[in-house]
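Consider the following assembly input.
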Amino acid sequence: MNTPAILATNHLSKYYNNVCRVNKVNMAVHEGEIYGFLGPNGAGKTTTLKMLLGLTKPTEGSVSIFGKECSKNRQFILSHIGSLIESPSYYGHLTGLENMRVMQKLREIPDKNIQEALHIVRLEKQKHKKVEQYSLGMKQRLGIAMALISFPRLLILDEPTNGLDPAGIGEIRELIKSLPKRYGMTILLSSHLLTEIEQIATSVGIISDGNLLFQGDMEILQARNKASICIKTQDDASAERVLLTYGYMPVHQHGHLHFENMSDLQVAQVNKILVEAGFNVIRIEEHKKSLEDIFLELTGKERSL
Amino acid sequence: MKKSISAEWLKLRHSRIGLILIVMPILSLLIGSANYYFNQGALQHGWYSLWVQISLFYGEFFLPLLIAICCAYVCRLEHLNRNWNVVMTAPVSVASLFLAKLAVVSVLIFIVQVFFIILYFVAGQLLGLSSTFPIEAFGWSLRGWIASISIAAMQLGLSIRIRSFAAPIGISLSAVFLGLGMYVTNMGMFFPYSLLTIGIGALSQESLTGVENSLFLIMNLIFISAFSSFAIYRLQKNDVIQT
């Protein structure tokens, strides 16, 4: 990314009773990107996001946003950030519109922003209903509308699709994807769902046990996902011996011959060698690691995402 | 500050806090008036005797309770549904968040004090008090209100810290008794709850001297500043923990 980082942390750490929850995280979010903050439950995502917003005080390290140190420029920075942390916040005895008005008063923003934010999350028709009567999905939408109300430069969303039905998830996903282009926003969103991050994010940070294991463009992560070629013949052991004489070094595993870093031409050559040597080639497959495999490789453990 | 106060007012919409603000003074007035009515033989000082009866229940029980309830209520709004996350990420100073709550509670209590004076006047008329209405009552109410702000600053600090709605109210009731003890031992100027007893003239209607009045105001100023500063400091330094 060539654009400057609008959010950067420096050795950001948090300890609770000497137990490390976030360990020296150096995070960089660049202007205009959708940064997916991925990690299993309990990895330290929310704690990190809360430190970015000043809700939790770092034990060590610092946060700078828009090039300014957070601890010294709290109000300026917060005036350009919209956020939804943990689960949606709302005053249940007030209507959706009144909840938006509370935000409006605290942020001094025009009326049209309320209408636009409610329109975006499709809550216009329910805006006069008390929020305690809203469904979980509607509350989540209201939370997103409240985060959007000032159409901020930086939007921080913690698990934004929680509580939404599949249609709602798709809709919010498309909405989030459209925000950088429509409003010039930069988005930092956390999720424990790999597929969600894969579909929305342009950059990704992977956190596990408080450590940031990977950070970079989504494409870089996907580039780790090099394809291998699997060839199945009637007699893999003999085929392997033949191929060795031609300088190919397949790995014989799971009933296949595996080849790493093969060009298309090489695949064709191997096929030709085998056919000419009298082997019946049953199958040639391209095998790609899923992002989940890469995540498990990075975290070094098999755990639910 | 203005935007924080305006947001706080908006949060009180559709709430039932207004009902409590009306019921509490009426209750103390009814109990005090009944006491006066049935003991008219012993209570010879007209309006002053009536004030003693009603302000005793009001100033020593219902008003402190009312302040504690108001403070617990405005904080409960934030404790519920993780609303601290929203208010603490709003681009306003932490001090203004606290002071806005204090301002709103103070205005509510001011309205209650005005309402209480009206009730006192009506009760006096209904009980057939013929002498002139004591203008000192305005001073008692005003001083009571000033002392109420000190108590509110303390109670707000407690209610922000303690998630339970009832616990800070329980603490306030214990503080009332401690305040009475301080008042009796002539240490009343050094505790907000006994400042309320002094201010509202619940136990003595003798006018405060100029020095006492000044000390009363200075002590309230000190308590309001100290409790507010401490609560703001804690809000700034501590993590926002929402369960």
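Chain B has a mean pLDDT of 91. Ask yourself how this observation constrains the way the partners meet.
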